Amino acid sequence: xxxxxxxxxxxxxxxxxxxxxxxxxxxxxxxxxxxxxxxxxxxxxxxxxxxxxxxxxxxxxxxxxxxxxxxxxxxxxxxxxxxxxxxxxxxxxxxxxxxxxxxxxxxxxxxxxxxxxxxxxxxxxxxxxxxxxxxx
Length: 136
Description:
Number of helices: 7
CATH class: Alpha Beta
Helix content: 40-55%
Order of helices and strands: EHHEHHEHHEH
């Protein structure tokens, strides 16, 4: 199984202060997936979003070191075209979807993966594009 990690999960796990007693269920589940050596991937746009939010070069380097072991999924021309189709399908259905979210969805679909996210927008998009969401 391929699990594609969304920015929302990466940010929750790697950018937020950690307290064991209040650690989110998503963070615990990601730790379990890492321990089980599951195939975890990050779309290039998610890596960019995650790293764009840091304040210092030290934080950037630390965060990059943490996510470096995950496979990186880069968007091809076909994936960008699929993202545009997803955006159009969602718009026709009255579902608001951002360009980056459509690219993340298209990347996950192309990889044959399940998207691990906390972003509820993907659940609304799902029925219009064939996206499979990772169930906790």
